Structures are given as structure tokens and as C-alpha cells.
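Dig into what follows:

_____
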Amino acid sequence: MFLPSFRHLIEIEALKKQNMQNLVHVSGENKRISDLVERRKLTNLQIESLQEEEKKLNLPEHLNTLGVAEKRLKKLESQLALSVTEKEQIAFENQIKLIKNEIQTIETLYFENLERSEAIEHEIATKKEFLDGSARTLEEIKQEVDSNIAAEQKIIDNRNLRVRALEDTLHPSLRSLYSELEQKFYPKRPVSFLLDKKCSECHMQTDSILKNSLEEGRSIEICPSCGRLLIPETAKIY
């Protein structure tokens, strides 16, 4: 009585499993896009961070401070040349020594920051090149992905037509129970095979009466342990 429906149910489950594999491919195709989009977002954030770091180097301010210090040095040197007493000379020489040390410190910091600024500019230029190139690549990938997904979806749609046709042939009681269990167990399988009195999913052993009734197609049975719809092995060769 139920064996033809069980056989159709086996085919339905096989088709749905194939559809799941196609959906995995679709997900993988979409991930190609999302991964590149995320890389571009991260790159933009990195560029912003580098630009902020470069701003904090304060190169224009250091250069201005250095210029002011050098002007003070020239002024002190000219005042030293005009000094007439030993005391004045010593005072100017001490000030000149201090300003030279200050200039040296400013120059050291400036050139260190200048070197870092050049490195930052190089990093930013490299990342902008990636953004420019990846923008074109992203459009190409989107077109390719759209085409691949359309092909996968066409396969899935064709299978679904077959699934619906098979579902219409199921015994009403079996179709109703299968639909209910499919929602309950999603995304896991709602069915299992009865193999040598054991459920293929949870391995719970059943009694001989249930086994014989199921294999002869006289009843619809649910695994007492996991609650899945049991399919007899005899349905495979029916």
C-alpha cells in the first residue's frame, strides 16, 4: 500500500539533497563577492587610519619650528659677532649651543617623521591601487557570479518541479506527515531507513512487528527514539 510512496519519497529526498549541494555552491559564489567587499571596506579603514597617523606626525609644524629656531641661531650668531666683552661672548655662545642642540633634536624628529610619512604615503598608494583594481574585479565577479547563480537556480527549479510532481503522488497520509516532519527537522533530514531493525540515523532498534509491517508497506512508522519517518529498505528495490 505505502511502498510506491516510500519509493517516491526516496527520490524526493535525493533530489532535495542535490538541491542543498547546489545551494552550497550558490552560497560560495555569493561569498566571493562578500569577501572582496569586506576586503575593500577593511582597506578603506586602513587608509583612513594611515591618513590620521600621518596627520599626527605634524610635519608642517616641525618644519615651521625648525625655521624659527634657525632664524634665532642666525640672530644669535650675528649678535655674537658684535659682542664687545668676554661676558657677552660667553652668554651668546651658551645660547648658541643651546639653540643648536634644540635644532638637532627638532631635525632628528622631523626626519624620522618624514621617513614614516613617506612610508605611509607608499602604503596608502598601494592600498588605493588595490581599491581601483578591485573595483573593476568586483564588477567582473558580480557578472560571473550572477551567471553561475542563474545556472544553479535553473537546475534547482527543474528539480523542484520533479519534487512537486513526486509529492503529488504520495499517499495523502504520508505526504502530510512528511511535510510536518520536514519542518520539524529542518535543516536535517526528516527521514531515516530501517536497516536490520535499526534506525539509520539514531541506531535505535525496533521490534519485529514494526519492521514487518513497514517492509510490507502496510503502515507508516516513526522511529520511537528520534521521531523521524522510517523508510523500509524494501522500498529501494520496489
Q: What stands out?
A: The mean pLDDT is 93. DSSP finds five helices and three strands in the chain. Helices lie at 3-56, 59-82, 86-169, 172-185, 208-215. The first strand starts at residue 191 and ends at 195.
